[in-house]
Amino acid sequence: NEFEPGTYTVSEENLDGYRAGRWSGDCAANGRVTLQAGDNKTCTITNTYIPAYITLVKRVVNKNSGELEANDFTLLVDATEVNTGQRIELEPGQHRASEIQREGYRRTAWRGDCAANGTFILAPGDNKRCTITNYEIPPEVATLTLIKEVIKNDGGTMHRRNFPLFINDQLVETGVPVELEPGD
Question: Is 95 in contact with 122 (CB distance < 8 Å)?
Answer without folding.
Answer: yes
